[in-house]
Amino acid sequence: MIDMHCHIIPKVDDGSKSIDISIEMGRLAKECGYNAIFATSHYIIHDNETENNEYMQKINELNEKLKEENVDLQIYPGNEVFFTNNILELIQEKKICTLANSKYILVELPLFTKVIPLNVYDEFNRLQDAGYVPILAHPERYEFVSEDINTIVKLIEAGVLMQSNIASIGGKYGRHAKKNIKKMLKYNMVHLLGSDSHSTSVYENYNKYIEKIKKVIKDEKIISDILVENPNKVLNNEKIDIIYPNIKK
To answer: I need a surface site. Which of 47, 81, 147, 224 has the fewest CB within 10 A?
Structure first.
């Protein structure tokens, strides 16, 4: 398995505070069954703008340290890019990382807005026209999804993939996110799952969260797709076939 969303690189954002915490996160991730992690440190203009070369150096250093500690886990580059109108230019200028240098890019939107900004569709279209595939980070957490979950349907129909956080099912992000992810899982609106770990806590409760997810999704193939097959397709830069949701209010 591959963790699609994790803040494991130390001291670059609000994630891991030290190399020791990062190693422990890696150790626990391995125990959960992961063999790889996409490092998705925040990239926020005028806030978190770690230079690409420096970021890659930190990823390489963590991979070396994990190897020294006999943790058989590979860290791949990525970013969780906070939405801006020039994501495509940031990719082209090599200021941000796509996931394992693939066509897939993880994007975060503002959490507390009741209506999705119209320019989101414009920017996602620009990315797609250039050959990239936007993945929306933790859609269940957005206020506009709580206001109208059909916004997610529209985004999926526009070719945007959905990455949900496994801890949302356990209430880590509040009751609205918990309600939203249950509905999204039920109606095949989740394509990828990630821990969004900033420390060790999500991995420590991993099995509990997965059991809750399996109670919503009865189909083992869908579970395998969102936990194993689709993340591997991202890593290998292969196409993910979207099953379009048929949501009922």
So the answer is: 47
